[in-house]
């Protein structure tokens, strides 16, 4: 056994850092910095000081960290995808990601891959393939073991390398890297995703594991757009069981993504997994020491994405000492791009803050409450589409369509993209009231598929930190305990949100028919709900399919929000 796992004891850190404002990183032989689910947030969070660093600052951080801290040890820089949908820097261009991709690619990743957001829309997939997969600097380093790109002529090619086998620079550690996307089904026609368990049954994988046996590998790195805590589908656990069977005694380090949480999981006593949050709020750090010995040691730290943290962990004494030419140049490009895309154009003022998780759904300061009560009812259907209007209307959205809190203060073009970046349309079906009224509770009884996890999801109970001298922020609990965040914070109060929320407007309660309007992303789930409910209750003699769904028209969520805010001022 590599290390007898017991929370907060096997990390290399002593726990004596509480008095300093930072918990220090524990450098090992092999160190990792991990980003994930950046979703275009390359220009910092203007509303939150905790996350005030820009992508150029991360470029500087990596350079300084390598020079001043890593020294004779090894460092690998890893990203696990989802680079679009969430911020104006990526989403205000056509195609989405046109300029932000080049800025993102300034970081010299050793291993990178794609997320589901690189696969929803054809343009994004094509851009990702040509700009990043085929980018000379990432040759061999862009890995995707279970996704293929569909060429113009219809032929399939791997979306990057199937694997990477290499030796680290300093210790010459032999690394085999694989990368898997979770079982994502909504990919566009320029891509093909094979579920991980099917992929590893293929010949190439059998041959690979014969070529690189346990004796040829010091560390197996499995990084991908896949949650590391997955109680519903257990994909990572199934993958791990297979890999452990092939490599019974190899150190395995996983890097996960997609659920937007800070997380560290001990899969067994020689296999660990790190997941590093979302939206450039976190740089994940992990280290492994004494790798070739019988008992390697592991550590993890979630670094807040801000300048104080970056300076501290890179042992820089001042901004002047910290900033590198390349980092400064990247920040200038971000500044220019923000101007070019008019992201600071102000449309109005948000009167008070509205939160996704920090206020309960019943609170007027909850963003879903605000949207369903105030904003969604302003939706107008296209004017050439007014026949057969029922006098009751339900408008339903998936809570995952909303990506970020709405803060009091200026409402800019960028704010729109941070709240709801998607260009989903509004569709509708006319339904009997008895059926329409049941869809919400049906969908909310399903697993959390159309929502986003709480960013600070508490899997293991850690004490709530209520010290008022600390700033609000992440107080993460993971398999190594409660001290993974680099900065001790005061806990945020968090409330669960359902899969979907809806507004109901009625002009005539006796009406038997309802215009059931919903955003197009949830159409398959709505159809499933209707057919399942109807099968049980036989309300109508009909099986619902896409042909029943009509275009309702009207402004997107982000445009409705903008119009609403303008109307307040
Ligand atoms: N057109 C879309 C695409 C996605 N969503 C929401 O995003 C969720 C996935 O986001 P991740 O960052 O976790 O990959 C998805 O479950 C939807 O809730 C959307 O609303 N519209
Ligand atoms: Zn994501
Ligand atoms: Zn994702």
Q: Can you describe this structure in just a few lines?
A:
This protein is α/β, with parallel strands linked by helices.
Description:
The structure is a single chain. The protein has 569 residues and is an alpha/beta fold. The protein folds into two domains: 30-340, 4-Layer Sandwich (Purple Acid Phosphatase, chain A, domain 2), CATH 3.60.21.10; 346-450 and 491-568, 5'-nucleotidase,  domain 2. Helix content is 25%, strand content 20%. The chain contains 16 helices and 21 strands. The protein has helices spanning 55-70, 88-91, 100-104, 122-133, 196-199, 203-211, 235-246, 307-313, 319-322, 325-340, 367-375, 413-419, 433-436, 439-444, 523-537, 557-568; strands at residues 30-35, 74-79, 111-112, 147-150, 156-158, 163-167, 174-178, 191-193, 219-223, 251-256, 262-268, 271-276, 282-289, 297-304, 346-350, 392-398, 409-412, 426-432, 500-506, 513-519, 550-551. The strands form five sheets. Strands 6-7-9-10-12-11 form a six-stranded mixed β-sheet, with no helix packed on it. Strands 3-2-1-13-14 form a five-stranded mixed β-sheet, with helices on one face. A five-stranded mixed β-sheet has the order 19-16-20-18-21. Helix 1 (55-70) runs parallel beside helix 8 and helix 1 (55-70) packs antiparallel against helix 10 (325-340). Residues 1-19 have low confidence and may be disordered. Bound molecules: the ligand Nc1ccn([C@@H]2O[C@H](COP(=O)(O)O)[C@@H](O)[C@H]2O)c(=O)n1 and zinc ion (2 copies). One zinc ion (ZN) binds next to loops. This is WGS project CCBQ000000000 data, contig 00016.
